[in-house]
């Protein structure tokens, strides 16, 4: 596929192979953009920002609504593309496409709802005769940098609200998974988006991503990815609006009154989808000493039943990781924990880029699979004695993206909600749950700003204050 900038589909002599994570075959080839392509894209985006800013909200709604319909009509093609380039199972890819349709639909509706509010200046001393209101206006040029693990829906979460708010957007998709974003660009143009309203540059993040983030013509950056890359972007960006959706090592607390069958089902569902490559995937399972053994007995068969293999096979539940080197890293972390006294309950086997769904018990808080973001198909189980210890363990991390608790005790549930340091809190389910309309974002070093079309539109607009100084 070709990349798109300044109203044209562009090729380049230097190419990047898009490889199947499952077998390493070449799925497609895309151009490797250079600094000249970045400048071309930025010049087009500046023009596009003027065009988009003058486009009525209802027209933006119609474009995004038409794009949602086109994605839905081509859902199987999008799903196969996601599976081929990213490696998740077809069932998970189809679900991602359905979510992308919802994200674009929600974004379309927000295009009709941009508004300000009146300001009661007469409530301030000496301000009689003043009448004020606010206007919400587009930022201008938005740079959207997306990760590999949801190559369609997370792009939609950036592009949809940016366009709904009247901005032009430059997409930098993950180098490993650019095809879904390029197909989304095709769909938006077919839906009637002005030619300069969007650009999609494929290439290396250290070259074109850095150049985009430093560019003074960019007013807003929205990034989803690792904590380290996010910090680097913040340091280089300068004076810009920034949304950071970064990593996590999400805990789930299992209190002694929990329904263990329901808990085991939730951990199996929220710890291993997309081979654990989800920033809110269940990673740390904090389990009451009173039910520790019973929980492991309930969890083991559910995890062992998760079939691995070719993600295009309808029977496969867990596909490969994005690259073999990532599966090797997960294997090393698990082996390191075992050497430190932890035990593998099930799994712990790697074949190429596929790492078997794994449960590691007796994990201590000083182990890497507890402290860092694993981003793989492993859950680490740790004991606790009290709700105080459980909350302290949950908070013993630099991250604060998502957390869950299982309990029937209202007091425990409310303590969890008030005291656990995370942006998304789930009661009686695992941390990996997201409705695309909700405000989504983390605390601490998991980032700042919110996604979800209604909330992202606010992040992608600026507020102006207007005051009339009226006579007498």
Mean pLDDT over the residues: 97
- Output the strand order for the largest sheet: 14-17-18-13-12-20-21
CATH architecture of the largest domain: 3-Layer(aba) Sandwich
| Largest sheet data | 7 strands, mixed
Tally of contiguous helical segments: 15
- CATH superfamily of the largest domain, by name, is Aldehyde Dehydrogenase, Chain A, domain 1
Radius of gyration, CA atoms, in whole angstroms? 23 Å
Q: Estimate the global geometry from the Cα principal axes.
A: globular
Structural domains: how many: 2
N-C termini distance: 65 Å
Residue share in helices? 25-40%
What are the segments in which pLDDT stays under 50 over at least 5 consecutive residues? none
CATH-assigned fold name of the largest domain: Aldehyde Dehydrogenase, Chain A, domain 1
Q: Number of DSSP strands? A: 24
**Approximately how much beta-strand content do the residues carry?**
15-25%
Organism: Candidatus Methylomirabilis limnetica
InterPro entries: Ald_DH/histidinol_DH (IPR016161), Ald_DH_C (IPR016163), Ald_DH_CS_GLU (IPR029510), Ald_DH_N (IPR016162), Aldehyde_DH_dom (IPR015590), ALDH-related_metabolic_enz (IPR051020)
Keywords: Oxidoreductase
Active site: 245
What would a concise description of this structure say?
By secondary structure, the protein is of the alpha/beta class. The protein is 39% helix and 22% strand.
């Amino acid at each position: 596929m070709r990349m798109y900038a300044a109203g044209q589909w562009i090729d380049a002599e230097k190419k990047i192979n898009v490889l199947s994570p499952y077998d390493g075959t070449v799925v497609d080839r895309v151009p490797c953009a250079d600094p000249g392509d970045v400048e071309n894209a930025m010049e087009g985006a500046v023009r596009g920002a003027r065009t988009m800013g003058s486009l009525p909200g209802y027209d933006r709604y119609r474009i995004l609504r038409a794009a949602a319909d086109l994605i839905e009509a081509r859902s199987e093609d999008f799903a196969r593309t996601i599976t081929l380039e990213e490696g998740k199972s077809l069932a998970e890819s189809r679900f991602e496409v359905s979510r992308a349709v919802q994200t674009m639909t929600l974004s379309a509706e927000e295009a009709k709802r941009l508004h300000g509010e009146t300001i009661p200046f007469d409530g301030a001393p000496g301000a009689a005769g003043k009448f004020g209101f606010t206007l919400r206006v587009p930022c201008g040029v938005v740079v959207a940098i997306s990760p590999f693990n949801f190559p369609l829906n997370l792009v939609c979460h950036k592009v949809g609200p940016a366009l709904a708010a009247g901005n032009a957007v430059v997409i930098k998709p993950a180098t490993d998974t650019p095809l879904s974003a390029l197909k989304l660009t095709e769909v938006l143009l077919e839906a009637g988006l002005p030619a300069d309203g969007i650009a999609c540059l494929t290439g290396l993040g250290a070259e074109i991503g850095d150049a985009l983030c430093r560019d003074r013509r960019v007013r807003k950056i929205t990034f989803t990815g690792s904590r380290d890359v996010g910090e680097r972007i913040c340091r280089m960006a300068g004076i810009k609006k920034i949304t950071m959706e970064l990593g996590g090592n999400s805990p789930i607390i299992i209190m002694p009154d929990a329904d263990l069958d329901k808990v085991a089902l939730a951990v199996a569902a929220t710890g291993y989808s997309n081979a654990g490559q989800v920033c809110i995937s269940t990673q740390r399972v904090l389990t009451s000493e009173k039910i520790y053994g019973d929980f492991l007995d309930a969890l083991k068969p559910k995890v062992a039943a998760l079939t691995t293999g070719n993600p295009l096979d309808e029977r496969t539940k867990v596909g490969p990781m994005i690259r073999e080197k990532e599966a090797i890293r997960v294997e090393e972390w698990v082996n390191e924990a075992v050497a430190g006294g932890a035990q593998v309950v099930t799994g712990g086997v790697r074949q190429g880029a596929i790492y078997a769904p794994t449960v590691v018990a007796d994990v201590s808080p000083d182990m890497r699979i507890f402290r860092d973001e694993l981003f793989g198909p492993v859950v680490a189980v740790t004991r606790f004695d009290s709700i105080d210890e459980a909350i302290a363990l949950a908070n013993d991390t630099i991250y604060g993206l998502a957390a869950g608790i299982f309990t029937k005790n209202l007091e425990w549930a409310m303590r969890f909600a008030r005291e656990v340091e995370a942006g998304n809190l789930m009661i009686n389910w695992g941390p990996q749950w997201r409705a695309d309309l909700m405000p989504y974002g983390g605390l601490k070093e998991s980032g700042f700003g919110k996604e979800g079309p209604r909330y992202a539109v606010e992040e992608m607009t600026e507020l102006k204050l207007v005051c009339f100084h009226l006579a007498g």
